[in-house]
Specification:
This protein is α+β, with helices and mostly antiparallel strands. Helix content is 37%, strand content 32%. Strand 2 and strand 3 form a beta hairpin. The longest helix is centred in the N-terminal third of the chain and has 16 residues.
Amino acid sequence: MHLLLEYTLADDYLERRAPLREEHLALARAAHERGELLLAGALPDPHDRALLVWTADRETVERFAAADPYVTHGLVTAWTVRPWAVVVGGADA
């Protein structure tokens, strides 16, 4: 089982992200290096959502979101964590 962390992005996300981007990416890269975060990225055209695919437990994902500077500085206006039952691909399939 994987977890999806979905971010809803602020309308001015692209304009405001530059000062926070390196801190956000460092947090994501650290989670990836620990094997918790598999994939992450924003959905373009429009840039209104981002998806992060996790193998970690819900508590780890929620802790990541709570510490993410994009969340704490309001670039993410809402976020959800949902289980994702992968049926093709991945180690669990």
